[in-house]
## 1
Amino acid sequence: MMIDFAAQVEGLRPQLLRFARSQLRNDAWAEDAVSDTLLAALERPQSFAGNSQLKTWLVGILKHKVVDQLRRHSREATVLTTDDGEDLDESLFAPDGHWREAPQDWGDPEAACGRREFFEVLEACMEHLPPTQGRVFMMREWLELETDEICKELTITATNLWVLLHRARLRLRECLQSSWFNARPA
Amino acid sequence: MLTLHRIRMFRRTCREVTRLVLEGEERRLGWVDRTAIRLHLMICSACPRFLRQVQFMRHAMGRWRNYRDAE
């Protein structure tokens, strides 16, 4: 029974590692977060109630371990790359503040969300965000942290965080436009 | 004069409205900003579509969380 449980937990390692990597953008930190998760799970199998899915339970633990890693490495996690510092605004707007090209009508989100390929494109777009933008965006959207919690964990100011999230959301929008909407005309 | 002053106070470019709409995803905006957005959306044809794209992304992210964490 116990061996069976351990095997099932271990079997989910690749998936957990992929999730941890997409959030942390660092293989070593991701390995640590996943190891801590599996260890915690195997130490306290009785806390797995069995009425939720094993994966959901493990992902819940993983999210805490991922925050631990971000806290531990906050200094390195907030170093901006050139890409992180780049503003899309300049290419989107004319000097007078008008759109260069008006945004398109994306239609009903449920139409896209019913398709697995849409989530695959969405995930690819998130993975293409520059590292620091990607981290804060995932903290907000996957870990579902409030902005003040993110500022505290990464020791950055609210203004810095808003700028990063602003850039990340504009990039995600661009990526969805080119990789989903332009690629599959409605 | 007062009316003119008030209109100026709420006037925003598309670029500024875009920034405010995105900031609204992270925190509750003050009433001046919210009013400025509403007024701008009434007279602009491009920004309402941007707002709907932001709402689209918010909705999609919520569905993605379920898809990823449970399926």
Note: Chain B touches chain A through 32 residues (CB under 8 Å).
## 2
Amino acid sequence: MPKALKINKSVDEGIKELLEFLIQNEKIKGVFTLKKMNDEGAVSYSLITDLDELKEAVPLYPFMPVNAGKVLSAFSLQAATKERVAAVLRPCELRAFVELVKRVQGSLENILLISLTCGGVYTLKSLNNGNLAKQLPQYWEAVKKAEIDPDIRVTCRSCENFIPHLADMTVAAVGKKDIDNECVILLNSQKGEDFALNAPGSAITEEMETADTEKLKKLRVEQKEKLFDDFDKNGVGTKAFIKTFAACLGCHACSHACPICFCTLCDFDSKSCEYQPLSFVSELSQKGGLKVPPGNIFFHLGRMTHMAVSCISCGMCSDVCPVNIPVATVFTRVGDSLQKVLDYIPGRDVEEAVPSGTYKEEEFAEVGEQ
Amino acid sequence: MKSAQKEKKSNPQKGKILPADEGTRKAVLDFLKKSLEKSYFDVLLIPAKTPETKSYSWILLKDESLLEQADPLPPVMTVQGGNALSSITKHGDPNLRIGALMRPCEIRAAVELFKLNQIDLDNISLISIDCPGAMPLQEYMVEPDKIADSFKTISEKWEISDTLRPVCQICHRFSLASLLPSSEPESSSDQSERVLPASDLHIGLIGTENKNIFFIPVTDKGKDILEKLGLSPEDSLQDWESKVEEMRKSKLEKKEKFNQEWQNKIEGTDKFVAAFDACINCHNCMRVCPICYCQQCYFDSQFLNLSPGDYLERAEKRGALRFPLDTILFHLGRMSHMVLSCVACGACEDACPMSIPVAQIFTLVGDQTQKDFHYVPGRNRGEPLPLQDFVEDEFGEVETPSEGAEVSTEEAEKNA
């Protein structure tokens, strides 16, 4: 059975105690984690090096202002960090970072990856409604019972990848009835074990996957199947696709929030996708009218072909959309389908190449045959 | 400028009043239909309801039958009209005669973009319309029917409802006045002798109790449109003018209060920073802003990306470093780049996923800074952008310390 660290504090306080230990004993220079910005519930990822500032950290707060994969990519884009840091991030954020590392957009070196068995996050809008604080008890109840809080992101409700297999350390949350008094941090790798040496708390052994995580997985898969069923009935085909994106403003908030969309200048923001004068004339000669600015459907399909293979269904795209288009649902559905066909799970293994960048001589013969 | 105003008083502006028996929307669309039928325009640029949804999009419209779905004043402003227009002529004039019907703030944004070489106005006629405001976009997308109903009442009665977007509630530039070069404050630019109004033709709706609409020609192009459609501008505009003035005063009052309130809310570093506590640095505000036209925004570029060692050094200075980086720098930077052209359209606030009152903050700063430069964005196509214009006598009061505020050399050295 894998090793774990047990700290006799609430799961929030326990992880903070470990982080404090790591900084104080100079095992890490700093930690990337969520930090309170004000008393109204606003949080932001922060690279914290000072113990006083660490007091304001809220590592397990169920909110994702930005996908942390993007944050770590920005941090390690120019080079791998020479100083060791830790990062507390959710399973999907970790997978996103791994997908970015594969694309030479960051480095895993010298980063201690701390994750958790994940109960999901609330939408960005839930902060605006001022309800987030009131929701927290409900959230943690669901986590303890290995159930689904109905108010979390759609993508979270349908996520079966809530167990972070590539983390060095994992805070056991799902199904743990005693998280108000006990914090169990699983040590998933040699690196995790090394960093935990002499850490406060007692050494125990504990499995990451339990009957409770299995229970939640089943519930999440049920939700996913419902989501996909609904989409397959109403969202498939050209007409339906156009209807789904009919209200799109072309603001590209989705692509900019997406961790996988790393291009500094997206093709769809560049001149190459802007219409030449003749295109307007020619389209108008064929149709009675033309939506301007043009190219929204093309943008979504193009973005999809570029990144769906690595879509980790974090749900940031839907959250930032000003007109409530369920972008994440569409991309998750297509991503899931595409990933199955390619036998690929984004973020499961940093050595596994992205399929769209690999050549296999024999592949999809069944499609080529008449 | 002053002589133009005198001229206005002795030669009162005339327009054409048309009945709106089936409602003002129908009357406006009938006019536009005629302009297509008589081939005055090749295409129109107008918002239309997107089929099978309750949202609206800009349509470059050739086929008259599509006018059935068109609406000159939708309850929401989805894409800012300046952006829609800019996408059409960005790579050259398609040689289509376009009649573009837009809200005053969208017309003014288009004029600012014209000054920035982002729009070619040669083949475009800008038609402005009295604007009752718009409703918050995100609220509308959640409950379109309810919000559309509220808007119907608000726009018919010209109410200054607190359900309108906050920047619309204080907007005194909802009509023709600020689309004219003579709009207060008087320009300080020496180059403003080039007087080119923003709008070619204006459609007046206020003051008619929805029984009529007014067509007011502004430029020769505008006069030409009316003449070619057999509409001679010979009617008095008094009813419209007096109601516009009344509404303008009410809005200005609200604006005064707003300015005071917001000055208190965000003045000073601490308060300004706190306003952006919930900002996730997504840059939506910048992307929907008509004035932010840069292909690649500086704040999206790699200029701001540092090495891990540099990030850690910065983090250690303060004990913690917020990621994504440079949230406040982004807002202040964007502000310093565009606020002199800010037309207070509110697109930024509509697009913010964290409901930060971006438009209200930028409108406040825009208002104050534009006043300092005696500038109203978009009122005059011939008026140069303040930062592109050299005015010899300017801001003397800032350069020379005021009397009694003399600082001794000793003190100055101490304070340095």
Note: The two ends of chain B are 45 Å apart (CA to CA).
## 3
Amino acid sequence: MRRLTLALIAVTLLAAGAREATAHHSFAPFNLEAEKTISGTIKKFDWTNPHTWIWIDVAGDNGKVETWGIEGMSPNYLGRRGWSKNSLKPGDKVSIVIRPMRDGSPGGMFVKATLADGRELRPTGQAAD
Amino acid sequence: MRSTPISLVASAVTLLVILAERPATAQTAAAKTAPTAADWAALAKLPDLSGVWEIGPGGGGRGRGRGAAPQGPSLTPAAAAKRKELQSLGREDNQTANCVPPGMPGIMGQPYPMEFLLTPGKVTIVIEAYTQVRHIYTDGRPLPEDPDLKFHGTSVGRWEGNTLVVDTIGFSPLTDLAANVPHGDNMRIRERFTLTSPDTMSIETTVTDPDVLTAPYTTTRTLQRHRSWTIAEYVCQENNRNFVDEKGKAGIRLDDPAGTSGK
């Protein structure tokens, strides 16, 4: 029940663009109404503040490989919810659901990732005590 | 010397009388003496606000009941006009995107933990977001009459039973009272920190600002204590790819994946 409530609050706050929950910056560069799934190979995982960054090489329709940059929550936040600097490693085959950039550049905001073995990585959840 | 001059004795007696008449309080205002063992022991009698806390689920400044939107500040006509003007600029973000910390009161509403340290004459709040620190003096000193203007103002506090009551004044013009609501010269913030259960604390924050608000603006947050947590580092400039330009346009730099953390 608590998990559902937290998810509902998170979705409501995201939709409203509420300042209190966002910290650091707004969601303006992202299209929050859209969802896109990209698949490829992890190039680099920045376990840094103020945001983690996932760099993933994605093969385009023309076969050309392009590096996408996906912004995630702070490692401080993720680390308390089951993530670590080793959650994604260069070479990992991953598919990531994102809110894409409004201007069409190769990037977006992290929603969730599915690893090669089927496990999911999400930025939500109750913090471990 | 056989006998001490009478003037020296008189001076010594006078000095002793003066010293004896000083109030025997443990903490005198802005005392420059070292805290005594008694001062340290006295901390154990205070409500235990120590440790690492974070705003709990549903406890982030909301009104009564789940799903209730918090009541916003009641603005004077001038402040409402100013907010409308700022909103019409279509700014997509504020300066926190450029790693400028929000200052008070916003710094207390971040989704990151904070650590309360109680020492003689002082409560220190180490705030993980943007690695910020607030100093609250509980040694009886008054608020300054003409404070320097700072992101967190100048704070003094006192214990009223189980509640730490803190008053803060003197805020930098680089901080806002709320989104698109600049504060006036006379904004004051009063906070009441109360332990509501063994590991929950309520913080009731009341902002008054005669130039901006028609009524005091009060929000209440509930914090959860996490005994096993530590405050993590947060250097905003470590790998900041966000920015907002002088026109208020928000952007993200996707170039150079190696970035500042790449090797």
Note: The beta strands of chain A are 36-46, 53-59, 65-71, 93-100, 107-115, 120-121.
## 4
Amino acid sequence: MPDENGVIATHYRIDPARPPLTLAGGLRAFPVIDGRDSKQDLMAVLTRPDLPARPRVTVGRAGDAVPYTLLPLDYGTGRDLSGTSGWFIICDGVPGPAISQARAPWREQELVACVLLPVAAALLALQTCGLTHRAINPDNLFRANAQQPVTLGPFWAAPPASLQPAVFEPPYMARCVPTGRGEGTVADDVYALGVTLLTLASGRVPLAGLDEATILRRKIEVGSYVALTADTQLPQVISDLLRSMLAEDPDHRPSPKLLLNPEQARARRIAARPPRRAQQALNVGGQMVFSARELSHALGLRPDFAYPLLKNGTAEHWIRRNLGDPQLGMALEDVTRKPAEQNVPEDARHREMIVMQSACAIDPFAPLVWRGIAVQPDGIATALVNAPTEVAAALEEVVAAEAVVPYLDAQERRPELAAQREEARDFRRWLGSRGPSGGVKRLIYAANPMLACASPLLANQTVVRINDMLPALNAAAAAADRSKPPMDAHIAAFIAAHADSTLTGELMALKSFAGPTERLAVLRLFGRLENRLQPGPLPGLGGWLLQSGFATLEDWRSHKLRGELEETVKQAAAAGQIAAMLSLVDDPAARRTDEAGAEAAAARLRVLQAALDDIGTSAARRGRIAQNLGHELATGAGLLGVLGAAVSLALH
Amino acid sequence: MMWLQGVGCGALLAFAPAMALLLAVLMAPALATMAADMEKGRGMTRSVAIACAAGALAPAWHLWLAHDEIGAALALLSDPLNLLLAWGGGACAWSLCQVVPALLQSVWSVREAVRARKIEAEMKQIRDEWHLDEKSVGEG
């Protein structure tokens, strides 16, 4: 753990001579100097504690060659110059300012040469790696000067598209909560690239000034291309490209490979059937809908109004009669009638399930909607982080009901989400796990491996990797209230999520942190972690455990042995050896000896008590014996007298 | 048995009145002790009676040799030595019955008190060493 301000991941030092940068989405970045190679122009991007970095990119793909893209080179905890701790990701410095700062419309050749081609090349390379960018917008594209190709900015420091303005996202992504948009596909990047080209070509962000809900509604009503390009004069090449890049169906958008040849890409025509529109609108909770996509959107937004429409067949009737789409009506009927035939109980969960499945049946691109909250299946974990109460409640229900599985059943066109079925089971298991290390916290930490532990006990320490947990607690001990345990539900869940399964027993034993068994379980947990991770001496944590009563010997029976052990435990705590403390406190052989000694002592006490009782009750008996002895002695003396008198008479 | 004692006494009065008189006077402490001794077995009466009998044996023998005459009995009774021996023996026996138990009780009490203190000290040491309370000891 770095202690010095301005030092990141041991090797990098923030350059105080250069000002920090504010990247797209408000992320902060600091120019840094690598202590091993000071010539490199590097920057450290500070991740937000509520937005975990993308693990597949940050950890798994660091160093992969993707052209025109800033990739993570290193990562680790550190402190900025003010001393604030955080999780930093090191990458090359940005080549220049963001292209959003140039307000003048770009020329067609410059758009193609400097934006379209380099970004398409980057997307192609990312696609080859199985990755998406999901943060393409003019604020996140940089270049040194005119006529230079742009460089794609950081996309790995936050969940996919979580910092992306809704206008740059396809409608089915823009509907989702920002942190729940999921990895998406390269087609979603192509869409964002299309909106970026449109922005640069027109010199302004389309639909600027409108709120996100209005933008989304307009896109759904008239389609993205029409909604975004209305009243905008565009070069013919760009216009042709945008028509396909902004297609509603991701399969209709050109691939990055095709975009590398703009002439071929603009010549490609997909014969997409325009969506059917009804003459007479359907009223869904006050919102008038005219198309299937609008209906799906309205059902998801207003589940309370949606269910009666689905249950009584109004929606199906409207689709058949007014929209003139019997096939879609049949698909909807399958969803709404099947549970009734199977006698499924009509509870709140069932109603949400019907609404969700109906929205999917009506619009194949619809996200998973539950209680009005939309999310992509692979975005549930990130959406749960710091989610508002109602969002968290809805998402927990999604996980508990494994609603992802029926959603995916209706999403055969998205094979990239197949792994979510397995994840759905894992999520449910984690959510259902009990104790402080279980529940939703366990789910959040297990499903977001780059999420920093949010325990208030850690104070100004950042812990993203399990290796950093003990040193962070050791550092936090100095300012901690040592009457409280160095363990809470966040830390327990974090350890449960990051440590291997051999610690399951200790984690299950935690329950609360009050009883002696639980306190010993905490010590065991820290001791085993220390053995495994070898973090070095932890005197702060040792003292904290000692003072908060977690290395107590209270339940040892022998006073003498306890006194000796306490002294040794104190020495181990001062040396910061948690495992040594554990071996002293939790020594089964010594415990058995102690117990056997206590039992022998109790037996001896019983014997002594009996003897003491006997002394108390034997006084009367002793009196009788003494009296008898007196009588016998007097009788004996009398008999001697009689004998003496008889002998005397006989002699005379 | 009381009736047998009554027959014996009656026979003695009838056939040897002088002997009865002599024995009644010399054994008077035993008779008095018998009247006061209410304990089971009457150990003290027995001890005093045997001690008085030791003092009365010689006068009774001399009376027997004098053919049990009242005058001889009175002469024997008028000898202070005979009374001293019989009554003094009874007094010694009574004293032994009183003093010996009291003495033994005192010695034994001191000895038991010392032992109790030792036991209590050991119990305290065990309790302090092993943190044992009444409950944990009782459960064992």
Note: Residues 1 and 7 of chain B are 10 Å apart (CA to CA).
